[in-house]
Structure formats: C-alpha cells, structure tokens
Fold this sequence. Notes:
11% strand; alpha/beta; 7-stranded parallel sheet
Amino acid sequence: MHDKPVALVTGSARGIGRGIAIRLAREGFTVAINGVTVDPGDTTQGAYEVKTSIELAGGQADVFPADISSVEQRQAMIDAIEKRWGRIDLLVNNAGVAPKVRLDILESTEDSFERVININLQGPYFLTQLVANKMIAWKQVGKIPNPRILFVTSISAYTSSPSRGEYCVSKAGLSMVAKLFAHRLGEYGIPVLEVCPGIIKTRMTAGVTDKYDKLIAEGLLIDKRWGQPEDVAGVVSAFARGNLDYSTGERIEVGGGFGVRRL
Ligand SMILES: NC(=O)c1ccc[n+]([C@@H]2O[C@H](COP(=O)([O-])OP(=O)(O)OC[C@H]3O[C@@H](n4cnc5c(N)ncnc54)[C@H](O)[C@@H]3O)[C@@H](O)[C@H]2O)c1
C-alpha cells in the first residue's frame, strides 16, 4: 500500500481546486487530480499541468478523469484510485459549476436547475457516501489513521442572488450535506468541514470581473481585494493537518470579511 496520505480533490484541473491540490502536495499528500475532460498531451493547462507542477516541485500526483454528476464515473474514479494507491485520507469536494447563463429567478429554467443541482449537490452527496464507506472500512483495518472530508460551498449558501437561484440553492443544500456527514461520521472519528469562498479570482468569476471590481472598490469587503485560490487552500491545509478537527460540522468563510455585518 502507498505510504503517504492521499487526497482526492474534485475539479482540480484549474481554479480553487488547482490551488488546493498544489498546496496539499507541498504538505506531503499524494494528490488525485480530477477533471471532466483531460488531455495527457497538454501540460500547459488543465489536469496535466497541475500534475506536472506538483511533480516538478517534488510531489506526487496523478489524474483521474470523471464527471462527478455520473454514478458510473464516480465509482470508476474511486476504484481507480483504490487500485493505484489503496487509500484516500482526505476528500475535498471542490468541483462545481455556475449556471451557464445568469437568469432571473422569474425566468430561469428547469434544465439549468437540474444541471447545477446534479453537479453541485447530488454529485458530491453520493461521492461522499461512497468515499465515507471506504474510509470507515480503511480506518477500521488501520490503513488510514486520520480520514477527513471537506466541502467547498460558497457565500451563496447563505446570500441571496436571484440571478442565479439554482446555484444558491445547490450551495445551501451542500452546506447541510456537510453537517449531515459530520453528524453521521462522528462515531468513526471522521471530521467534516465546510469552507465558503467569497469572491475568488478564477474562470468562474471571469465574466463578472467589472461587477465585483466595483463592489469591492465600494467597500463590500473588509479586506479590499479579490480572494485567490491560495486563500482557500490555506484553510484546507489547516484542516488537512488536523488543526480544525474539533470544529467538525462547522463552516469557515474565506471572503475577506464579506460576512461581517457593519455599520
Ligand atoms: N470563484 C469563486 O468566486 C467561488 C466562490 C464561491 C465558491 N466557489 C466554488 O469553488 C469551487 C471551485 O470553483 P472555481 O472558482 O475554481 O471554478 P472553476 O470553474 O475555475 O473550476 C471548477 C472546476 O470544477 C470542474 N468541474 C465542473 N463540473 C465538474 C464535474 N461535473 N465533474 C468534475 N469536475 C467538474 C471544472 O472542470 C473545473 O476544473 C466550485 O464549487 C465553486 O462553486 C467559487
């Protein structure tokens, strides 16, 4: 069996997931990088760029393609990681999508609702169920000493944006999923944490740069800057090291003070 702890980071071919994968590799995790479509021939972007970056820095990683909204692909990914390394010590549920088009809640469509809920909520719910059962069994036979599970939700879990209602609903639901698994897995000593990014500079927010530049300049945040993937990775890393185990079931906002009510 592989002698280093293994972290699976979903949606880690770019953005926040990439930042988390690189940070965890630096901290000694072997990283399972996940993306939907991957091109082994391209090491300049996407999953293989992340793998190459990790390896050049002396770390270990491999790519496991899967669409997390597919039952079969989730199962195949976990089987492949088990075959390769025989363990998953940390699951980071990071993959997620915004609606393809921001449509007002009075006009938004069932198709977009289903897509966003399947990827952001149903996928991580059942992926976590699958991995949690493995972790329980592996912990009981002493293969993994400290399994942990983390959910990347959003400030949208508790902030209304009527132009992307389906996204807010998916993240509010995922926030409860984190609590449910924290509760259920407590007896097995598996801590679960929810991390809520605020406004983070990634491809997801590229189309709304002007809007957020303006809001930040006008004082929306205490720390008047965009968040970076590394800001989120810092909290994930503290959790991965065991520093937040007693905070199981809690959520931590990484939003530059977005959530602080101010007068
Ligand atoms: N950027 C922000 O401001 C922000 C704020 C709050 C929360 N988030 C959340 O952080 C997470 C990462 O977002 P990001 O900003 O890095 O976005 P991003 O679009 O740059 O990256 C998302 C990643 O998830 C992957 N992905 C999408 N659908 C997938 C699927 N079905 N199966 C597997 N992988 C899939 C994408 O390929 C991509 O690599 C998401 O859950 C997002 O909702 C982002």
